[in-house]
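Handout, page 2. Input:
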Amino acid sequence: MTETQAKTDADPKAVEAAKDVAVQLDKAIRVFRMYDSGNDLVTKFLDELDIRMRRFMDAYGDLSLRVRPTSFEYAGATIAGTGLDEFALALFRQGLTRLSLATTIQRDEVRRFLELLSAGLTGSDSDEDDLVTLLWRADLAGLSYSSVLGYQE
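Output:
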């Protein structure tokens, strides 16, 4: 199946639900960057993300997004929208090429993932603090990802 065929065969409702999760994930990360993790607004955005993730997962199972330089892809269909281009680029620049959330992901894992994204996407120049390293160290059971290999000398 070609990529073009996959795009036309993708369930439009599933694509829209995946976009809803990606948009809410972007919003939640922005809130996590601005407020203390105990803030009521952080809890509100985390709750909304949890609702959208569960809605998606109840209907379609695990959510796996391909990370592109200016968008995401779900089931071969491009997911783009306000703010998602910046979010996708930030993940792509950190070396992520795929991000998958399993139906078994727990709320505390989602919170930790958002904390890691907030820390990893701040633009730190330290090799030890890049997002892929943070995710690897956290070893979140309900989250998997693919990344490109870094430059080796």
